Structure formats: C-alpha cells, structure tokens
C-alpha cells in the first residue's frame, strides 16, 4: 500500500500528473456547480417500514444505515425530477421530497448483489458498481 502511495506521489510530479490534476480540477468545478444548484431539502421514505435488509451479521447494522442513506441521497439528487411538498413543523415551512418506488426497487437489488461476496474489497472495483448504477 505504501509503495502504491509513493508511486502516485512521484507520478504527480510528472507531466502526466500535471495533466491529470488539471482534468480533475475541471471535474471538481463542475461538481461544485451542480451542488450549488441543489436546494436544502428534507427527504422522507414513505416505504421505509416495508424495506427488508439482511440481518445475519454484525456488519449488516452498518450496511443497513448506508443503504438507507443511499436511498435518501438518490432522492435528494433527483429533487428537480420530483414534486416538492411543503409541510409545516411548529409553524416553520419544511420542503420535502419523497423516495419513489422504482428507485427503491433498483436500490434494493444492490445489497444482494454486494452480498454475493461481502468480504470482497469493492473499493478497488468501481466498474461493476458504476455499470449497475448507470442503469437508473
């Protein structure tokens, strides 16, 4: 691991490293522009009580929270494609968006997909997860 970090640090000092840094900066600027367009919004999941998640291991506790967070993140990022409702809480208006069933169906397949080999280091393999997520 340390050797790979050293290699990356050396590569950053080359022309290829400079080019990669410039490209990364461009992508980062685009991401920041999109983030500025997002409104502060609460997300509710009307189907939360009906969701099931494997509970056979201690790790499932953490993974379940991540799964619910992923559902919330997808609903938040799709806020311009959903109806935004306003509810009052103690006289203060609160804008909310709701998770939708088609999104939940797609996300519900992910835990089973990852649990085929839960000990595999998925962080080194972004390709399969990316290909799966682009089907949305």
Name the beta content range.
5-15%
Q: How far apart are the termini? A: 34 Å
Determine the mean pLDDT: 82
Number of helical regions: 5
Radius of gyration: 20 Å
Shape: flat
Supply the helix-strand structural class. Answer: mainly alpha
Helical fraction: 40-55%
Topology as H/E string? HHEHEEHH
| Number of strand elements | 3
Summary tags:
mainly alpha, 2 domains
Description:
With 136 residues, this protein is mostly helical. It has 2 domains: 1-37, no CATH class; 39-117 and 126-136, no CATH class. Helix content is 54%, strand content 11%. The protein contains 5 helices and 3 strands; from the N terminus they run ααβαββαα. It has a 3-stranded mixed β-sheet with strand order 1-3-2. Helix 3 (59-77) packs antiparallel against helix 4. The longest helix has 23 residues, at 15-37. It is flat, with a radius of gyration of 20 Å. The two termini are 34 Å apart. The mean pLDDT is 82.
SSE layout and pairing:
Elements lengths: L1 H10 L3 H23 L4 E3 L14 H19 L7 E5 L2 E7 L2 H14 L11 H8 L3
Parallel strand pairs: 1-3
Antiparallel strand pairs: 2-3
In short:
The protein has 136 residues and is mainly alpha-helical. Helix content is 54%, strand content 11%.
